[in-house]
Amino acid sequence: MSSQKQHNEAYPTGVTISLKELMRYEYYVQDMPILPQHPVYSLLAGRHASKLRGRGLDFEEVRVYVPGDDVRNIDWRVTARTGITHSKVFNEEKERPGFIIVDQTSFLFFGSKMYTKSVIAAQAAALSAFYIVKRGDRVGGIVFNDATHQYISPKRSKSHVQYVLQAIADMNTLLPQRKAITSNILPLNEILQQARSVITHDYVITVISDFSTINQDTKKHLRNLSQHNDVMLVHISDPFDGALPNGRIVLSNGKRQITWQNNKHHWGEKYEEAYSKLLRGLSDEFRMYHIPVVQMDTTLPVEQQVMQHMGKLTKR
């Protein structure tokens, strides 16, 4: 038995995740009633309709004929009714490669409920990768932890998705062996800078992290990526991010520890306000740049959270 398999079996479900578990998301994608018009499915990035004029799959409108229009697209019924030549206009579908950036740093190796953040991040990446390939597009990305990263060039096949997910599973199963907890902002910014050097245009970029220590450099990289691509953030959180339990608790970063009480010096109120400010900042600022933020947490598997979100959209 390999050492990696031994490590994986040594921890309860939800602490780490294996390649076998990630590969199951192929079947979740097949069973889900995927509706591209729902905003949540920008997470499952696939083909997007371009604004190119031409023969395509999706009818857009009928408008007055202009010189240069394909005569095969003339709408003869509207032309006969109005006496003015009209053309049918289509949205031409073009490839949009999917690029997934997955945070597997020690900062995400935490969870107070069913899963660790790192497992939820891995699940979200698996669901997205399989959906991209299902739609016929190429998928690639960067998986990173505190010490290293792996760049995977976009390709279009199930075997390539397995290669992507193997990279995620490998880094995920290393997390219990970490020696210390360090901020993930430096590696995240370095990865975003690298992504800018390899991504050209017309990509659908999904960045999966907890963004807990996001700074101005992070925002600058994301804004630059969004100028010629569609960018989406998947924010992974845990209930303890927003509020710590009452009572006397001990908090530690692996090196130092403190005794915490919510009612002492209004610590609890300040803690909750800091997290609320983070959420408001993520949504409000990135909305200006048309970068959606999808919220996911550690209380349920990703596929259930997506289905719940679909239900809310349907009721609106």
Provide an overview of this structure.
The chain folds into two domains: 3-47 and 95-315, von Willebrand factor, type A domain (Rossmann fold, 3-Layer(aba) Sandwich), CATH 3.40.50; 50-94, no CATH class. Helices cover 39% and strands 22% of the residues. It has helices at 3-9, 19-23, 25-31, 76-82, 117-134, 158-172, 185-198, 216-226, 239-242, 267-287, 302-315, and strands spanning 48-54, 58-64, 86-94, 98-103, 139-144, 149-155, 204-209, 230-237, 248-252, 257-261, 293-297. The strands form three sheets. It has a six-stranded mixed β-sheet, with helices on both faces. It has a three-stranded antiparallel β-sheet with strand order 1-3-2. Residues 61-257 form the DUF58 domain.
Sheet/helix structural class:
alpha/beta
The profile of the biggest β sheet is: 6 strands, mixed
Question: CATH H level of the largest domain: which superfamily?
Answer: von Willebrand factor, type A domain
Unreliable stretches, pLDDT < 50, 5 or more residues?
Answer: 34-43, 45-56
Structurally, the number of domains stands at: 2
Helix content: 25-40%
Helix and strand succession? HHHEEHEEHEEHHEHEHEEHEH
Strand content: 15-25%
What is Rg? 23 Å
Strand order, largest beta sheet: 6-5-4-7-8-11
> What would the average pLDDT be, to the nearest integer?
84
And the CATH topology of the largest domain? Rossmann fold
The CATH class of the largest domain, by name, is: Alpha Beta
Overall morphology:
elongated
Question: What is the rounded distance between the termini?
Answer: 51 Å
Q: What's the CATH architecture of the largest domain?
A: 3-Layer(aba) Sandwich
SS summary, helix count = 11
Q: What is the tally of beta strands? A: 11
